[in-house]
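As promised in the previous annual report, we have extended the structural survey to additional targets. Below is the entry for [SSU ribosomal protein S5P]-alanine acetyltransferase.
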Amino acid sequence: MTNDGIALATEVWTRPVQEGDSRDLAAAYLRNREHLRPWEPLRPQWFYTASGQANVIRRRTAEHERGAGSQWVIRTRERIIGSVSINNIVRGPLLSGSLGYWIDADFQGRGIITNAVEHMLWVARSSFGLHRVEAGTLPGNTASQRVLAKAGFTRFGLAENYLLIQGAWQDHVLFQKILHDDLPEVL
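The corresponding structure token record, generated without further manual editing, is:
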């Protein structure tokens, strides 16, 4: 890890989201609003503002402190170009979390998001002790499905009316990656 974070590609790094990222993160979401629209829930206008992202970052930081999740930004020296996160962490016999990610339209197809996903899988195991990670994609999101396949995920089902995306309940293809079969010392 450098001062910039974990290298994902030439001049691209990932690191945990920080309080000072709110302006850059808002700009990244605004710049990619149309690119991300088909895959995301309807977003309120405040989501695309620095103050709105500051609130999101505070929630994400609190989740991290509780061991419930972690968000990392993907950035170049100039700007944030994406994000990868693990959230909805469930302890006990499941030891699982949900993966989320996105990449700037101008940086697609370079392997950056696959590298970020692989790094987040390492975080899920080493920092959170998770047994498995799951992810879901809309059936037509083949680019995201390729990312998951490259990172070693396997498809395990289809969830009907799974998430509210763009104002309608949408089916999602479900994927999982088993990180290890070690037994925890305590559940």
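The helical segments are 22-31, 33-36, 50-66, 112-126, 142-150. The chain has one domain: 6-178. These points will be discussed at the next consortium meeting with the crystallography subgroup.
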